[in-house]
Amino acid sequence: MKTLSLSLLAVVVLTAACGGEDRAGEFGSDPGGTTVTLMTHDSFAISDSVWEAFTAETGVTVELLQVGDAGAMVSEAILTKDAPIADVIFGVDNTFLQRGLDAALFQPYESPNLDRVFDELKLDDDNRVTPISFGDVCVNYWIDALPGAAVPTTLEDLTNERYAGQLVVQSPETSSPGLAFLLATIVGTDDWEQFWANLVANDVSIAAGWEDAYYGEFIAGGGERSIVVSYASSPPAEVIFADPPIDVAPTGVLLDSCFRQIEFAGVLAGAANPSGAAALIDFMLTDTFQEDVPLNMFVFPASQSAALPPEFVEHTTVPIAPHIMDPAEIEANRDAWVDRWVEIVLG
Amino acid sequence: MVLLPIMFIGLFFLFPVGTVVGRGLGGEGLDAVGELMRSSRQRSVLWFTFWQAVVSTVLTLAVALPAAATVGGLSDRARRVVRSLVTVPFVLPTVVVAGAFDELFFATGLDSGAFRLRHTVWAILIAHIFFNYAVVVRVVGTAWAGLDGRQAEAARVLGASRWWAWREVTLPLLRPAISSASAIVFLFSFTSFGAVLILGGPRRATLETEIYRYAVSRTDLTGAAALAVVQLAAVLALVAVSTWLERRRPAPIRMARSTPTLRSRSGRWINAVVASALLGVPLAVLVERSFSTGTGYGLGHYEALGTRVRQLPAPATTALWNSVHYAVLATALAVLIGVVASVVVVHGRSGWRRLFDLGLTLPLGTSAVTIGFGMLVALDEPPVDFRTRWWIIPVAHALVGVPFVVRTMVPLLRSIDPSIREAAAVLGASRRRIRREIDLVIGARGALVGGGFAFAVSLGEFGATSFLPRRPDDVTAPVALFRLLSTPGDLLRGQAMALAVVLMVLVSVSVFVIESSHGTTEGSL
To answer: Which of B310, B436, B483 to mutate to test the interface with A (most CBs of A within 10 A)?
Structure first.
């Protein structure tokens, strides 16, 4: 017994030691201000060289903590509000923003680089959050598989029986693009409840999340449906990650169906290193960071001065007039809308 | 030594879960629970959660028990091979398995029409059999291999039919292992997440998916906490019942080489066919996809695992290494704590026994959200400021691994004929020596099989891991796999399939190695 437990203890200690020597440090407790901790969602990605540039410029190292999807991240930030795990949070989007504001998650910070940001992305007058990137949730279609080779051009087209059994969407109960698309239909149709009833009559399919919609039911993953809710940046991804390589995106975007998601960064109230946090937010608006965003996260830079990579210019269109909605309005109605959607679509 | 499991479960489970539930309920206290259960939606969720778990358990037993019998009768080596192969489903993320099932349903015409499986409760049940098959085969198969076949043979000699001998002699001897396995299958099905959401479709919800929806989609932390209380209470009640059932008839047996088996050759063939249809076909779909590149079949997706794509915080190979590293740690921890706990459960004072059994099984029936959020909220100040330490992830994995060790080891310890221990005592062996040379030698087989489970569970864990803070270099293989599947593009999807296949191979080989480290005492004393 003793030998067994001792040897197991030894295994624990040894493996812990061999994997742990370079990561024994603690996060978020840095009085000297040489590190700043960034809390973000799992979709976050940026090139190593960009972080190196930040450290070279400021002498501050960025510690990155990823904590699940955007929804989980907001909940975790609220739960740890009194003892935040990070200095900066990135990835709160406009559908979750009001929750963060209501919970007083952020402390105001007005970045000197804010003047580079497109005005329509600035949603908080008090600068508690800073827009960093934006993307659009849009209906995508597989060009070669559309019935009769007819491209849908409006949201209402999706209720046309030509597209019966072609559309797959995500449930707004469990999916962020699903919720964004519901909001798009609320803004973009005359009577969204009737619109969804018509979609049901047209055999819309409901998936739990983006992965099982896009890869389970959409043609891209071997499914049968030719129309799916995805992102405006999905066509360039289809080209960049094509196998074998292709020149033209196999998918197109229904521009009338887009809902704009803006992703914000904010300095967390109670941040251990507020000056480092401010420096990080400034840096996130520089061209160095902004121009690295599209190919890493497949969203668009918030800064007007950042150039888009050629793949993006060639294979995607930034929707000129996406549907938008005030975060406070989203927050006030969201649960009721989702519940009503459940009644209409799943009921 | 006894304090070790108490400290572990107290610090890393009870304290975090208590803190997060307390904070979530806030001033409302248990009123929030009452209010929640007054809604008809939540009542039907609770009912569905319960009955689908019961049916999943019964179906899994029905499919896997014959296989356990066959496995019990195999040679040591063959048994270890089968036992390691069946662990493969443990490491596969549901979204990947669901894709394979979808493809099967599509290929067999079961995706629509009168016999539609997609988005039905049947799809959930089939997935639960798929994921839990290993639990029954491994737990019951292990106990079966240790049975003394002479008892059943004696019954046969005395004129009992084969069926009668099985029902009256073999089955009672296996009862502790069967109820142990059933408890695990039940709890796994009770807290199943991906299978319900993806295969069950948008109309089905269980407590687990509701907790996620409240905590993550609605940011309603009070509602989530109330649901967590309901889940904990339900699990406590169910574990208490199963413990009671398990203890009702302890069956002393002798360990011997001759094992009662399903001798018929046709039985073996039927099992092989069932297992390969259920487990093999979906897995074959994955393997095929992993080799399928844009230029025909090849190793391209596997070669790509070494280079970091932008969507991943680190190369897939780093993620694999992290997962193995965490799994080794989680397994060592789970075995250490599980072995101590099992001895207490079997030989400790009766108060301790019940407490240990309940306390250590609870994490298996607790939502990943509750555990992940709980650790984040509770372990936030010195001396327990652990929430952003990398090792909190393997610790969370070990929480789920411990019950496997306990539940495989306890039936074996209970089955030791008291006369063996008495004989040793009469011959002058000390209590300590009896424990070391009898209990631990016989129990070691269970500990290793449980350790194999702990390894597999850790390697595939995607729940609590996804909620705990991770640095880019700490990414685990399942998290990486999920990331690869979140951006369009065949290259990324191909790489995800290759990663899944590597995980499958890794888990079978590792479990085989773990269980082989104690091959000599198997089935004998």
So the answer is: B310
B132 touches chain A (CB under 8 A): no
User: B376, A80: Cβ pair inside 8 Å?
Assistant: yes
In this structure, the answer to whether residues A115 and A40 fall within a common structural domain is yes
Residues 1-30 of B with CB under 8 A from A: 1, 20, 23
Digitized pLDDT (tens) for each residue of chain B, 525 residues in all: 778 899 999 999 999 999 999 988 887 778 888 888 888 889 999 999 999 999 999 999 999 998 888 887 778 888 888 888 888 988 888 888 887 777 777 777 776 666 677 788 998 999 999 999 999 998 888 888 777 777 777 888 888 887 887 777 788 888 888 988 998 999 999 999 988 988 888 889 999 999 999 999 999 999 999 999 999 999 988 888 877 776 665 555 544 445 555 556 677 778 778 777 778 888 888 899 899 998 889 999 999 999 988 889 899 999 999 999 999 999 999 999 999 999 888 888 777 777 887 888 899 999 999 999 999 999 988 888 899 899 999 999 999 999 989 988 888 888 787 888 888 888 888 888 887 788 888 888 888 889 999 999 999 998 889 999 999 999 999 999 999 988 899 999 999 999 999 999 999 999 998 888 765 444 433
The CB density around residue B301, as the number of other CB atoms within 10 Å, is: 25
Number of other CB atoms surrounding residue A32 within 10 Å: 7
A195 with A331, same domain: the answer is yes
Torsion of CA B489, B491, B497, B501, to 10 degrees: -170
- Cβ–Cβ contact B461 with A under 8 A: no
Interface pTM, i.e. ipTM: 0.88
Residue B337, both tokens? 């704590």
In a domain, A11, yes or no: no
Contacts of A212 in chain B (CB under 8 A): 95, 98-99, 102, 198
* Three-state DSSP string of B432-454: HHHHHHHHHHHHHHHHHHHHHHH
pTM: 0.90
Query: In angstroms, what separates the C-alpha of A120 from chain B's closest C-alpha?
Result: 26
In a shared domain, residues A305 and A333: no
Cis upstream peptide for B315 (omega within 30°): no
Tell me whether residue A19 is in a domain: no
Q: Does B94 touch chain A (CB under 8 A)?
A: no
In a domain, A279, yes or no: yes
List chain A residues with CB under 8 Å of B333.
8, 12
The total of other beta-carbon atoms located within 10 Å of residue B26's CB is 11
SS3 content of chain B, % helix, strand, coil (to 5): 75, 0, 20
B216 vs A295: CB contact, 8 Å cut-off? no
* Cα separation values, A168 from A138, A189, A226, Å: 12, 18, 8
Encoded tokens for A231:
């992102």
Domains of chain B: 3-282+295-521 (1.10.3720.10)
H helices, E strands: number in chain A: 13, 10
Number of domains chain A contains = 2
Chain B residues in contact with A179 by the CB 8 A cut-off are 217
Chain centroid to CA B498: how far? 24
Chain A CB contacts of B295 below 8 Å: 244
d(CA A338, CA B244): 43
Residue B197's closest CA among A217, A72, A208?
A: A208
- Chain A residues lying within 8 Å of B223, measured CB to CB: none
**Residues 387..406 of B with a Cβ closer than 8 Å to A: which?**
387-391
Domain containing A277 — which CATH number?
Answer: 3.40.190.10
Residues 6+ apart with CB under 8 A from B399: B9, B12, B13, B363, B371, B464
